[in-house]
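pasting for the record
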Amino acid sequence: MNRLAPSILSADFSRLGEQVSLIEKAGAHIIHVDVMDGHFVPNISFGATVMKSLYGKTTLPFDVHLMIENPDQYMEEFVTDNTEFITVHTEACPHLHRSIQHIKSLGVKAGVSLNPATPVSVLETIIEDLDLVLIMSVNPGFGGQKFIPFSLDKIKTLKNMKDKRNPKLEIEIDGGINLDNIKTVTDAGVEIVVAGSSVFGAPDIKKRVKELLELIK
C-alpha cells in the first residue's frame, strides 16, 4: 500500500497540533519530520523537542529525516513509541554501515537518503541492510522547491535494485511533490510520498490530503 507522509516542516507551528490532527483525520499515514542543522543543509528547522510535543497527540508514526552532520550523536533523542523510521544521509555518514546498525539497535527502522547528485549505486554494498531509501527530488534545505525530473530515473534504478536484492525495502521520495506528479512517482515505484507545502499550503488541508490519497491508491 502506498503511504502519504505530510512534512511538518511546512506546517504552521503556531497551530502544529491542530494541523497534525487535520492530516490524521483526513487519512494521512505518517508524519514526516525534517530535522535541519544549518550545516549539512543551508537551513535550520527544529529538533526532537518539537517532534516530542506531538507524542500522545497523534497515533501516526514518525518518519524522522536527519539532515544534519554527525547524526549518530542525536539519534536516541528522536526515538519514541511513535518513531517508525530514522533516516540519515549517506553524504553525512562516513561510516554508513555503523550508522545503520546504530539506528537498528534503537529498535526502529533504518533509512538512507540520497541527495539529487548522489547516484543510487552508492547503496550497492548496503542495500540488504536497509528498511527505507529516501530519494531527494530537490536539493534539501527548503520547502516549496520544484521537482527535479531526473529523480524518476533514480527511482526506477532503485526499484530494480530493490526487486533483485531487498524486496522488503520501501522507497520514499521528498521534494516538489504535488497533485500533478504524485501519481507519476508512485507508478515509477515510490511507496511513501512526502508532501509538505502541497499539503500545508493548501487552502483546505483535509481536502488536499484526500486528493493526494485518491491519486496514489
